[in-house]
Write a structure and sequence with these properties.
CATH class: Mainly Alpha
Distance between the termini: 34 Å
Keywords: Membrane, Transmembrane, Transmembrane helix
InterPro entries: AA-permease/SLC12A_dom (IPR004841), APC_YAT (IPR050524)
Radius of gyration: 23 Å
Number of helices: 20
Shape: globular
Order of helices and strands: HHHHHHHHHEEHHHHHHHHHHH
Strand content: under 5%
Main location: membrane
Subcellular location: Membrane
Protein name: Amino acid permease/ SLC12A domain-containing protein
Largest sheet: 2 strands, antiparallel
Number of domains: 1
Length: about 500
Amino acid sequence: ELRQTLKERHVNMIGFSTVLGLGLFLSAGKAIYMAGPGAAVLAYLVAGTIMWSAMACLGEMTALFPVKGPIFEFPRRFIDESVGLAIGWITWFSWVVTLAAEIMSITEVFRFHFDPAYLQTFQYPSDRLEWRAGMDTNPAVWVGIFLIVVLLVNLLPVRQYGRIEYVFGCIKITFLVGLILFNTVLNARHKFHADRFWTYKDPYGFARNDFSVKDTHTYTGALGGLTSFWTTLTTTLFSLMGWEIIFFTAAENRDLRKTETLKLATRKITIRVLVLYALCAFTVGLNVPWDDAHLADLTIHGISGGQNSVFILAAVRERVKVIPHLFNAFFIFSPFSTAINNLYGASRILHALASHRDAWPEWGFFEAIRSRLESTRMGVPMNAVFVSWLVGFLAFLSTNESQAENLGRMATAAVAANLIIFAVNCIAYLQFYRQVNAAATGKLDEDLNLTPEMRNFYKRASRQYPYRSHLQWIRAAYACTGCILLALFNGWRTFVSPFSAKDFVASYIAI
């Protein structure tokens, strides 16, 4: 069995560290390019409220019923068993693919290089800004090194893993605060574009009013603003994935009841992510225009290097030395830490699936695999860790540019899969909400024979109830609607001529 050795502080930082991978540092620039700095901030806030509402649904159900694999167990209980098990496998797929994508992104960040002509444009103090060692080294070397370290950390007892991620999470929070202060200082050094930021004009204005697709179609006016904001909204979601890992820790959380871990973790992560992400996007948007050449990347899929990060561009444009190297080094550390958590989450999902015989084919071979995946050693499901880790070898596709693009498409499919997972869990919550209220009022089947004490326990207004949010059923409906719409229209650009079958499949195969 899994051991309950994680503390509340460990769970908090595991959740935050998982969300903060490379997504913010690269997607923030793409969001600013597509929608403008102000609209990019709004996109982060809107996407954040959708994720927050969905996580609150999972938080309430898990706090009341702390089970293994809650993200598929609740759909299994409250919707249909087959739906729940399907969600379990989709979740495992999305987490292992994200593991490979995070490792692959590290290899891209190592290829740090600026065109000398770009540096001369802003009179950068040096005529070269690059990591020659990273450019000359085969990406397979970095993939192998980081995959091995990720595996070793996940083989540690879970309490040691929690301590490591607590330190990593503190480092990430400190860096984000420093990033906000750095961009604020840059903007305060002199008047950039006007006396006040709210009077900035294009390309520093609040939002773009045009949007180009595949260099063949350009939408302007209200339609341009809508398409740019919607596309930015789906882009920002990639940098907001991973909140659900705090619920994967429920079976290993020793403070689950005592300190209201899930309640605190859900709210703390929400505040940290929404505030820090929005401030990062806002402050850097004051310093880098949306028409910067390094931000002009509207590819639907793919992972860029550190030279495409809007935060590094802010330092380069202001001729600040050393800082670009420090930022790029952190952009390697951040997805590395997230990859560790991705393997943790994937292994716990696979271990939970192994406890359900119906989730596996009835052949003897698969039964043998299932029984081994269900086993643990020192409280760690090592077989589940190892099997999930093997899928991370997809990161070796980064050695081939065309294959790396395919892995990028798989990562897009994983994001779409997460939207479906959250939508299904919101539906499960609405059913859970109805049944909990029925249990509290004695309207459930009489054969349950609920005592008055048990009925009182299910009253959401009672102090015994572990975690609840006001108007949560409305938030569940809001999150469900948002996730469904985003999943249905996340790949709308694939329909624009010329039609891309590969991008279409990547965007909609999860559906």
